[in-house]
Design brief:
about 260 residues; mainly alpha; 14 helices
Length: about 260
């Protein structure tokens, strides 16, 4: 019965909607972009393609196909449809090729997959955000290609705007954390001083929440933001008083609790 159920995978659009439901705040610009991208994929994938044919007809649908014929068709089909293949499915394909003596083809496919999908951004290649890709079961070369993309990814968003957006919804994703973790204590000092109104308390609360996380990025944010708040507190007694009321030790710049 489950084999006939028309569910394949959760995509980035699904995750963006789930996040909005969970946190009570929808990032409509992000949802719109993902919806347009998904619409394009559906138009393309609605047509029968050679990648699906390789798996459905040659692998699952026949016992008469020789191994080499299937492997040739699998590589060719994947190479022709890189833009519409999910990370989960490209991983399965690459592992299949490697297991049956096609390591060179597997390596080429891993590199080409990242190249052809480089416009899809950080979240697409963030393994931790994909519930259908187990990092431990991922092909090592493909995983290295994903990590290389993330390491070289340039986030051109304005840190202050991202910081305030996170504060307003009191939530974040891995891309947000990575961007803030690259900010220096001077950067945080300038951001805190630029923030006005209710968002000031929210951003400080946000930093306190992040500081309790265990990721390396969270630790970097805790140290840089803490030093920034310590320097701001040292500017005057009343600034120190304000920060103390927000739960910040003006001497250390970290939470008082």
């Amino acid at each position: 019965m489950l084999d006939d159920y028309p569910y394949n995978n959760t995509d980035q659009l699904d995750n963006a909607i789930y996040d909005g439901i969970e946190f009570g705040f929808f990032d409509f610009n992000k949802i719109k972009l993902l919806a347009l991208s998904r619409q394009e994929e559906m138009i393309i994938s609605g047509q029968k393609n050679s990648f699906d044919t390789a798996w459905e007809e040659l692998f699952h649908g026949s016992l008469s196909i020789e191994d080499e014929e299937f492997l040739d068709a699998l590589y060719s089909g994947a190479n022709d449809n890189l833009k519409i293949i999910t990370p989960m499915n490209i991983n399965s394909t690459i592992k299949m090729l490697r297991e049956f003596g096609r390591s060179e083809s597997a390596d080429k496919l891993a590199a080409e997959y990242v190249k052809f999908n480089s416009d899809k951004g950080f979240e697409f290649f963030d393994i931790s955000s994909d519930p259908f890709v187990n990092e431990k079961e991922m092909d090592s070369v493909l995983k290295d290609e994903f990590y290389r993309y993330l390491a070289n990814y340039v986030d051109d968003r304005i840190p202050l705007e991202v910081f305030q957006g996170m504060a307003e919804r009191q939530s974040w994703d891995d891309q947000d954390l990575l961007l803030l973790s690259k900010q220096s204590s001077k950067d945080f000092e300038e951001m805190f001083l630029a923030i006005r109104g209710p968002n000031l308390r929210r951003t400080i609360q946000l930093v306190l929440m992040i500081s309790r996380q265990r990721q390396p990025e969270a630790e970097a944010i805790k140290l840089a933001a803490g030093e920034a708040l310590r320097r701001i507190a040292a500017r005057s007694p009343i600034r120190a008083l304000r920060l103390r009321r927000y739960g910040i030790d003006p001497v250390s710049g970290i939470a008082t609790d």
